[in-house]
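Entry type: protein chain
Record version: 2
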Amino acid sequence: MQPNQQPSSPQPSVSEAPGSLLALGVEQRVIRACLLEPVAGEHRLAGWINVQRDPTSELTQQIEIACQRLGRRLGRKLWDDGPGAPFLQSEDPVAYPPLDQVLAASSPRPLLRVWVAGLSRSGGMAVAEAAVTAAPARVVGETVLTATVNGKRLADQLSGARPDVLIITGGYDDPDPATHKPVYQLSKMVAGALERLPPSQYPLVIYAGDRWLAAPTADLLAAVDEILPVEVIGNVRPTSETVVQTPLAMALTRHHWKLCQRMPGFTRLGRWITRPARIVSMETAFTQSVRAWLAVEQLAELHGVYFTSGWRLHVWAQEDAEQVRMRYAPAHTPPQVLDGWPPAELISGSPPAHFPELSPRWRDHSGMMPVIATVGQAAPNAMMQVLRQDLLEAVDVR
């Protein structure tokens, strides 16, 4: 679920028949921009460009470069040097037609780095690690409570791995105090490790273990430092027969989005977006496009894969299901076994070298599908027209 974006400043409202649409996309290593123009009553893709992104530079400076390059290529003014923003107002609309809408998707950060701590790899840790794959995150380390593990050793490991998030799991939801000692020992060791780290290295700590230990664990962590970020959610393994992954996946997704919003230039980019649209993540935009294609093609289900240079996202949408299933993976890893998933039928972006051959029904070689999908917020018909006529190539799978 995409967290709400702060409202942008007053700008042109959505019209029933929008004109020129500028859609922007930000990935960790690529800036994407495309222009959609009305032609004979329908919108078509007039042009698009991908510009290599410097992850250390401010977002909007690189978007400006992409817009200027695309404008020169098309012989069309897309950037207004005065306010330093997309060209939305023109003193001579005939000679220099302005843009009608500006939309954007942005996922400028890599996957979250996650450390998982628990009592055993087969219990809550396994559930937590499965939940991580449903969020823009990856596991970079784990700690199992044993006699040889201590706070200093864990602190050294955390200092080396620099996780963005540390998840504490363990125990079923049991009110019996006799069952609480192992989880409390684990939480106390984690708190001791965090005390040894400088504040600049604090991860977000998510407690997802026995709910009867939630308050004592929160107290232990609060004693480390008042600025240590802590979130308590429901137990990922409340009973031996119950597995709960969604709240943890949502907490990770929210945190990733918060970190994206803190990046230099993100707020300024938000001011460029024309109301009522808002910035969404690239993966949210891709998910929306998969659901839209499922509906327009009248399919029972659709498995789409979106490739970036750093990671890929699998989305499984079903006609009769309100929610979709999602699986993230680093780009270089081989395709994992997705139990019960149908074959991938829609591909956006380019798989890395040596990736096993896929046989989709529809393919977007450009990787622009999530960017085009942002247009659906203002002009859903324009989005579908461009996806069908200009972007998605039907593949002969006979």
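Comment: Residues 112-259 form a domain with the Rossmann fold fold (CATH 3.40.50.2300).
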